[in-house]
């Protein structure tokens, strides 16, 4: 990735604050009428994601998301743990196909992903070349 300096005009600090400044990673605004008392009977706090009620809730979330977004029937929706690792794994395995590829890796996660892709693609007769970037950052 190459970065270039953009010549943008400097911005002035806003003089007005928004009516509700709760945004970003917190605190966030609750929907109108929200209260902890209303969710205490339905919240699955302290439960494993593998228990039947949690699995049902996750299935409903992905099914509703698919329907609301009007995705093609053969597209999948998934819930991923809040990490880059899960997201990269899903992207990587959905994009690798019946052909060789080059994977540039700079640290241990990238090296493991390259190794996994290489082993999987070799089973199908394809090469996956790994390029290590030394002393990055």
Q: Which key phrases capture this entry?
A:
extended, mainly alpha, two-stranded parallel sheet, about 140 residues, 4 helices, about 35% helix, 2 strands
Shape: extended
SSE-based structural type: mainly alpha
Helix content: 25-40%
- Poorly predicted runs of 5 or more residues: none
Amino-to-carboxy terminus distance:
12 Å
How are the strands of the biggest sheet laid out side by side? Answer: 1-2
Radius of gyration: 22 Å
Strand content: 5-15%
Q: Give me the count of strands.
A: 2
Count every helix, treating DSSP H or I runs of 4 or more residues as helices: 4
User: What value does the average pLDDT take?
Assistant: 80
Description:
The protein is built from four helices and two strands, in the order αααβαβ. It has helices spanning 36-39, 52-68, 84-95, 108-123, and strands at 101-105, 128-132. Strands 1-2 form a two-stranded parallel sheet.
Quick structural overview:
By secondary structure, this protein is mostly helical. Helix content is 36%, strand content 7%. Helix 4 links the parallel strand 1 and strand 2 (128-132).
